[in-house]
Amino acid sequence: MTQILIVEDNLEYAEEMADYLGELGHGVSITNNAGEMWSALSQGNVGVVVLDLGLPDEDGINVIPRMRQLYPQIGLLVLTGRVNFDSRILGLRLGADHYLTKPIKFPELAAHIEALDRRVGPQEPAPTPSKWTLRLAARQLELAGQAITLTEKECNFLHLLTINTRPVPRQVIVAGIGGDDPDAGRRVDMLVYRLRKKARTGLGQDLPLRSAYGEGYSLSASFNLS
Description:
alpha/beta
């Protein structure tokens, strides 16, 4: 059985869930906010996270890509009251393994957790620090002591790719950089073109940016965030 971390601000509901899962033989711990969740994850013994999106200190949707980057082998199951289609799609594309909505019967929840448990493996060692650094406040991209200044959308685009280990779909990129017009897809292409040119000219090296047909964009090298 796996070690489960329930991240849920409704403590009564979380305790009922934990009691049921504990009776099945799982080890279960509870936290009601994102800050305590990160602390618990740093202990290194969590196999599956059951994540509510309505947390008091951070929107759970923003937790998903960061968790996927830092803990790629942990099973991530979203359990939320956000039932609309767009939220489901966004949650899955950002990295959730399963997206379930409340109310749910605990036997069904347990079945999803057991499915995740079958694929959970040991944590991979942390990657070697990258020579690339994205400075969010200054909107700069640095490499080997040189830096280029980014526009707000360029910075948001690279940040979105940095916190995701999987290709980011174009529609998620459009939402992430603030585009909402019918021509937004073409604007993404132009943004990528300008970024590639800016990196080649200002840093003397090609941007480690990969285009996956039908999937979106991803980075082929890790970026440090500052």
